[in-house]
Design goal:
The chain is mainly alpha-helical and 104 residues long. It has four helices and no strands. Helix 1 runs parallel beside helix 3.
Length: 104
């Protein structure tokens, strides 16, 4: 049975979402590092000069076919951070920094 990309991405996202259900609800530095790693991979894919053509890629370049995987990983990592309260911590930190800058 052949699958299209939409079906494959949906299946992959469903698998990751099911894995997320086991998350313990605590903020973990590994979640943040995972988000950063996957965002850097997407950024690298955006600036590679291959146009997605494998014959022009070298050993240091990422395969454009993995873009869906990196994107799904970003969504899952961001959800983990949000569910653990990490975004609330970040917002509070930004508010404190903004207030400090305004009071200078």
């Amino acid at each position: 049975m052949k699958h299209n990309l939409k079906e494959l991405d949906a299946g992959q996202l469903e698998t990751m979402w099911n894995f997320l259900r086991f998350h313990n609800g605590k903020l973990n530095i590994k979640d943040i590092e995972g988000l950063e790693e996957n965002l850097n991979a997407i950024r690298q894919l955006m600036v590679q000069k291959t146009g997605g053509q494998e014959q022009y890629a070298d050993a240091n370049q990422l395969n454009i076919n993995n873009l869906g995987t990196y994107t799904n990983n970003v969504v899952i990592c961001a959800m983990e951070i949000m569910l653990s309260g990490g975004l609330d911590i970040l917002k509070t930190h930004c508010e404190v920094e903004t207030d400090a800058l305004q009071n200078e």
